[in-house]
C-alpha cells in the first residue's frame, strides 16, 4: 500500500464544518486514486463492523474479513476469547486461510507448515534452528472490540483514539439483549457502484416512495426528520463521527406497523429481549459503513465495503432471539423478505447512479434536498473530514 498523498486537495470549495450541499465530483466516485485514498484514510482508520459474535460462538470457529489487499482472521480461542489477526504467515507472507468461515484447531501455512494457534501464537516452525524464538513471530494482531454482540475491527497500526463503546456511549440497546441472538441469514449483494454511492443511498429515504413500494406499506417515506438536518455533527473532541441514532422510528411508520416485514406484523414470535416487553423499532447509522435496524422481533446489520473504484459489497445479516425455533417461531424467508427486496431495489439504483456519474454528462452542481437528504450530507461531511489533507490533524493521525 502506498503512502497517502498529503498534497492532494478536495476538488471543490467547502466551509469548515458546513454540511455539503451537493454530491462529490465524478473523480471521487470513479478514480483508482480516490479508491486507494478512501481505503487508507477512511477504512484503515475506522472501527469496521465485521460480523456477529454469535457467528463464532464455539472455540475454534472463525471467519475472515476482507478489505482491499487485507484479510483478517477473526477466531474464538479455546478459552472463549475473540481474537483477530492478519491472515499473513510471518515466515514469507503466505495467505494462511482462504475459507470464508469454518472451524479450526490451528492455522497451518500451506507453504512450509508453520502453524499458529487460535490466538495467533506461532506453535510450530518445522526444522527452524534451536535459537529461533517462536514467541517473536505471532500473527500480527488487529484491534478488535465486541459491542452489543457485534464484532468491530480496526486495521490502524496505532491504537485507536476511541473505543467503539466510547463512540456509541449514547446508544442504549440493552432492552433487545442483542448478545443473546443468533444469525439466521447473511447475504452479500455485489453492487455496481462506488461504496460512497451505496452508503449515500442507504442514508436517505427521499427515493423510497418511488423505488420501494413494499417498504412504503410500512413506513411514511416523506417524514420530515428536521433534527437530521445537522446530521452527524463533529463532536466536541473534534473527531469527525457521523452517527445517527433513532431510538424509536415509530413516528415514521404507518399506523399498525410493528416491525419491518411484508405486512408490518412480527415475523419471529420470540421477541428480542426478555420477551415480556415490546421494545421499539430503532435505527443506527455510523460512518463509514454500518446501518443497523433493531426491531422488536429481529435485527439486521447492513454494511458496505469498497471492492474497486466502481464496485462495492453490501452485506445484510439478520438475527433473531437465540431461543427462537425455525419453522415454529420464524421462517427465514419471511424475516429477511422486506429488507432483502429493499436491498435489491437499492442495488439497481446504485448501478444506475454509477452509470450516470461515469458519464461526461455528470456534474455535481445540483443541490441536495436540504432536509430529506440531510443524512447523506452528514455522511459526506464525515467523509470529507477524513480525506481532507488539511484536516487530518483533527483525526489524531500523522499519516
Ligand atoms: S511462508 Fe508460511 S511457512 Fe513459509
Ligand atoms: Fe433505498
TrEMBL record:
User: Which keywords are on file for this protein?
Assistant: 2Fe-2S, Dioxygenase, Iron, Iron-sulfur, Metal-binding, NAD, Oxidoreductase
One function term, GO molecular function aspect: dioxygenase activity
* Entries under PROSITE patterns matching the protein: RIESKE (PS51296), RING_HYDROXYL_ALPHA (PS00570)
Please give the Pfam families that the UniProt record associates with this protein: Rieske, Ring_hydroxyl_A
Q: What cofactors does this protein use?
A: Fe cation
- What Gene3D superfamilies is this protein classified in? Naphthalene 1,2-dioxygenase Alpha Subunit, Chain A, domain 1, Rieske [2Fe-2S] iron-sulphur domain
InterPro entries named among the record's database cross-references: ARHD_Rieske_2Fe_2S, Rieske_2Fe-2S, Rieske_2Fe-2S_sf, Ring_hydroxy_dOase_asu_C_dom, Rng_hydr_dOase-A
Domain spans labelled Rieske: 47-153
Q: What is this protein called?
A: Aromatic ring-hydroxylating dioxygenase subunit alpha
Q: Which organism is it from?
A: Streptomyces plumbiresistens
